[in-house]
Specification:
By secondary structure, this protein is an alpha+beta fold. It has helices at about 1-5, 30-35, 90-100; strands spanning about 10-15, 20, 25-30, 65-70, 75-80, 90. It contains three helices and six strands.
Length: about 110
């Protein structure tokens, strides 16, 4: 249950960056260029191989959202200034992008 609570946003704001206040009190900020570059849609990621198709250099440096909308109770769709709007940023993905990876365990025998 705690994991589910962790993945639910309390508030989402579009400003200088994307801000999410999560139900567990965690706050996340996302740079728009990084977020657009992380788009998970089939046009940006090869559905079969998982290979990234979008080249970061093709994204305008001043990319910004024109709007957004909730998709069900699990994702956010962002309408980008470059005309792209097919990516669904699910809440788990967004939370994973904002949380630092866990520290790696020490190698045995070092």
């Amino acid at each position: 249950m705690e994991q589910l609570k962790r993945r639910k946003p309390e508030k989402i704001l579009l400003g200088e960056d994307l801000y999410i206040l999560w139900k567990d009190g965690h706050e996340s900020h996302y740079n728009y260029l990084d977020l657009r570059d992380a788009c998970p849609c089939a046009g940006c990621i090869n559905e079969i191989t998982g290979e990234k198709m979008l080249e970061r250099s093709s994204i305008p440096q001043d990319i910004h959202p024109l709007g957004s909308e909730y998709v069900g109770n699990y994702a956010l769709r962002i309408h980008w200034s470059d005309g792209h709007s097919t990516g669904l940023y699910n809440f788990r993905m967004l939370r994973d992008l904002s949380d630092p990876p866990p520290p790696s365990s020490p190698q045995s025998g070092s």
